[in-house]
Amino acid sequence: MGGTLINSVADALTRSISGRHVHALLGAVVLAVLVLSPVQSFATDGEPIIIQPIAATGDDGLEDIDDAGSGLDDPIEPVNRVIFKVNDTVDVIVLRPVALVYRTVIPPPLRKGLANFLANVSTPITLTNDILQGDMKRAETTVVRFFLNSVAGFGGLDDIAGRAGWERHTEDFGQTLAVYGVPSGPYIVAPILGPSTPRHLVGRAVDVLANPWTWILWDASILESASPTLATLVSDREVAIETLDTVRESSPDYYATIKNLYEQSRQSEISNGEVVEDELPEIPDLR
To answer: What residue ranges do the domains of the chain occupy?
Structure first.
């Protein structure tokens, strides 16, 4: 019986890597990168606050406003601002309304359970980069969290490990490149992708390969392959509704504010939250 099972798995893998399925994989990878990348996060009071960096306000001439100490070079700021406005339209017309409907229809316990499940399934991305960075202690935490939540937390729907003191953290290949001294490069606002840098863009692409959904849904249609990514995006956007609304309405230059928030978020993630205060750029005064 064991041999039959092994042979069945081998046959399935052989069929999966056939040439006629390559286009489905590539389509899923591209769509995953395009859809998931806009969502950025940083921690406040121990809870992740998701920042959707695809918004912009203001009139022509905002490029003359100083970025209030941002350390990221922005050599193509006028172009970045145009793309920023286009991305904002996508958020206002599509993503925010969908997130509001999701909040209205799905009760809080189910929304929390889905967020926990999606975070648990993405564990291989964090574990891979924990190991690549040589941080075995955090890798151990990642493994313990995965097994506790998968077994005792009903497949990750409940964050049993977090309540037991094994706090969740995330790592990505962009952070790994930074740990090895690869420079970030200039600030880029890509269509749909939102705020990024060349280093971060490369990291996002590599992380797709460590995402288990890429391989679980290898043989699925593009829409099916993208469904976990879409679920993550909507879930994260729902959490950020009030935060983004406040920042958008109160910031005199939303572009500069999001750029600074993005930079601070990435610096904090790269250093595992151990960022010296005077090393961070200041956020523009929103009063």
So the answer is: 21-59+68-279
